[in-house]
Specification:
The chain is mainly beta and about 650 residues long. It has four helices and 36 strands. β22 and β23 form a beta hairpin.
Length: about 650
């Protein structure tokens, strides 16, 4: 009789991972990571940077979002029903993008649909009460037409104790009449309602609030927010003939808030005493139509590939904000719960804010196989902003500017490559935070500058190191003496970033990274002592480690992660700081089959040590982090 090893016998009983086509059971951020600078697949997120913070700045606020490599102005968040992954591109990886912007590029990928019908069902539950059900499918319609579509239902439980339901839905239709042509219309939408308002804690001068009990809501139950985020559009590419290629996209992104409350616990003292303010807005709205039209002409001669690119980008963003009212609830303790009924809020008219921007760009791209690359770009942008505040005359500002980028890499050996780049951009600087007197007000566009340089080393066939230095310069925004969030100086983030990814030994996959940064603020306000030399919320060091170990049991992986940040300055005068913190995660992934159906079981415990860590929202303003949470998720591909 043939002898079967115990592990193999167990795999026969439970079901080995099969070769049957799978859609979501193979989602694995660690396995798919090209570097440690940030990315995500499905619900998994890893890396030094995120969609909201790269090199200490926000690429979302700056408008540095790409969809399949094309420019998009996106006020509304994407849903996973529409996109399947994203990657943060900095340094050498950013050189693959035309007209890269300072800070970093976050590139999203639409959901794909293959030649086989697959329906994926994912359900999860966390011990905090968070639960979700997601159904995503890919459906071939004809040899040239396929559809990816999905729906999701969620009940979210946040660290503050706020909770609320949400639903999402979306689709991506792909038409490929020939190998050179793709047309992909898409839509994604998320509806949030009855979502309780999380409080923000504003410390007294020089005070970091004492730790609060998480998952315990102190906001009144009537202060529920609701909003709808929508993204739709079409993108495509094709060959035009005579060697020319076309890539284009037209997008619409809207966020419509139906009810919006703000809960502030201000002047928080070390003993937890504070003053409560609750505000309501008439419903801020942002809507943007944007797109890019790009024509390229490649020239290939042996190992030398060159291309000339002509790009036209445009956006039209309309915003409505303001008109809110804050009510003073007097002195309280930060643990006190509001039980009074909802008062009448006398809401006022909103501010109308309109942005129109056109950008034309010309780029030259050179790729020398096995030797290096060169990218040169020049853009002319015309930025126009019109603001009409209630009771004041309409104001118009125009900011035309020349922008540029240059990047080069040199492959010295098969294992060693050098890279460097300089970039100037014009970026949105976002809106004032909820704790500011001018909360939700759109801030002006700013000129930004960046350089970076570094090295990529292939240590082994399965292990790669990327290390480089960078410097980003931007105007510095912070609250002034009247709590108005505005430009007060200049900020410079200079540092070193390191990424190590791959498999140092068989069965172990690692994604490790570090950022050592020297953030500084300069200008008259610093010299006059009105603000400190360290920018708010920035840490001098950030470390990350994610990994997976394949156990001897087929299909079973042990996963782990750790994220560390150094002390963060908590107010603009540098009088207080949030101490360093390390958040660790542990989990298992078990890939198996139910009959011939691929399945994945994931059990994760995040923040294993239940570390309490204040998140610095803005100067003197804080939000709580999530407590220890255990989540079980089952994904099945039918």
């Amino acid at each position: 009789m043939r002898r079967i090893a115990p592990a193999a016998a167990l795999a026969c009983v439970l079901g080995l991972p099969s070769a049957v086509h799978a859609q979501r059971v193979n989602d694995n951020a660690v396995a798919s990571a090209e570097d440690a600078f940030g990315g995500g697949v499905g619900q998994e997120r890893i890396g030094l940077y995120s969609q909201s913070e790269v090199r200490g700045f926000s690429p979302i606020t700056a408008g540095n979002i790409r969809l399949e490599g094309l420019y998009i102005d996106r006020p509304a968040n994407f849903t996973d029903r529409m996109t399947e992954s994203h990657a943060v591109r900095v340094g050498l990886a950013a050189q693959n993008y035309l007209f890269p912007a300072p800070t970093g590029v976050v590139d999203y990928r639409l959901r794909t649909s293959g030649s086989e019908r697959v329906v994926s069902v994912m359900t999860s539950y966390a011990d905090t009460g968070h639960s979700r059900l997601e159904i995503d499918g890919q459906f071939p319609i004809s040899p040239t037409l396929s559809l990816a579509a999905g729906v999701g239902a969620f009940y979210d439980e946040f660290a503050s104790g706020a909770d609320g339901p949400a639903i999402s839905h979306g689709f991506v239709l792909r038409w490929t009449p020939n190998p050179q042509t793709l047309v992909a219309p898409f839509l994604g939408q998320v509806h949030n309602w009855d979502r309780e308002t999380a409080p923000l804690y504003v410390g007294a001068p020089g005070i970091v609030p004492p730790a609060v009990k998480r998952l315990r809501l102190v906001t009144p139950r009537w202060a529920d927010n609701s909003n709808t985020n929508t993204n739709y559009g079409v993108l495509g590419r094709t060959a035009l003939g005579s060697g020319f290629e076309l890539a284009a996209g037209l997008f619409r992104s809207t966020t419509d808030t139906h009810a919006n409350y703000v809960h502030l616990l201000t002047n928080v003292q070390a003993d937890g005493s504070a003053r409560r303010r609750i505000g309501r807005d008439p419903g801020p709205m942002q809507a943007s139509t944007s797109g890019e039209f790009r024509v390229s002409r490649p020239f290939v001669h042996g190992d030398l590939a060159q291309a000339v690119h002509l790009s036209l980008r445009a956006r039209q963003r309309d915003s409505r904000y303001g008109g809110g009212v804050n009510l003073d609830y007097g002195p309280v303790h930060i643990s006190d719960i509001v039980t009074t009924p909802e008062p009448e809020f006398a809401l006022g008219p909103r501010t109308r804010d309109e942005v129109r921007q056109w950008t034309a760009g010309l780029a030259y791209d050179l790729r020398w196989r096995g030797r290096g690359s060169l990218m040169l770009g020049l853009q002319r942008t015309d930025y126009r902003r019109t603001v009409l505040r209630p009771g004041t005359p309409e104001t118009v500002s125009e900011d035309p500017a020349w922008l540029y980028n240059a990047a080069a890499s040199w492959t010295m050996t098969q294992r060693l490559a050098l890279y460097g780049s300089v970039t100037r951009g014009l970026e949105e600087s976002g809106v004032a935070p909820d704790s500011a007197a001018n909360r939700a007000q759109a801030l002006p566009a700013i000129i930004t500058d960046q350089w970076d340089a570094g090295v990529r080393v292939v240590l082994t066939p399965n292990l790669r190191l990327v290390a480089g230095g960078f410097e980003v310069k931007k105007p510095y925004f912070a609250p002034d003496a009247a709590n108005v969030f505005r430009e007060l100086g200049a900020v410079r983030h200079r540092g070193v970033e390191v990424s190590l990814t791959g498999a140092p030994i068989e069965g172990l996959t690692l994604v490790a990274g570090a950022v050592l940064m020297q953030p500084r603020v300069t200008g008259d306000p610093v010299r006059e002592g009105r603000i400190g030399p360290r920018p708010v919320g920035q840490a001098a060091r950030t470390l990350t480690l994610s990994g997976a170990w394949q156990t001897p049991m087929p299909g079973l992986q042990l996963t782990f992660g750790a994220n560390h940040h150094g002390a963060r300055i908590a107010d603009q005068l540098n009088r207080s700081r949030v101490p360093a913190a390390t958040i660790t995660d542990l989990g298992i992934r078990y890939r198996f089959d139910i009959g011939e159906t691929p399945a994945l079981l994931r059990v994760t415990m995040t923040n294993v040590t239940n570390e309490f860590d204040w998140r610095v929202v803005s100067s003197g303003t804080f939000d709580v982090n999530a407590p220890r949470t255990t989540t079980a998720a089952l994904t099945v591909d039918f």
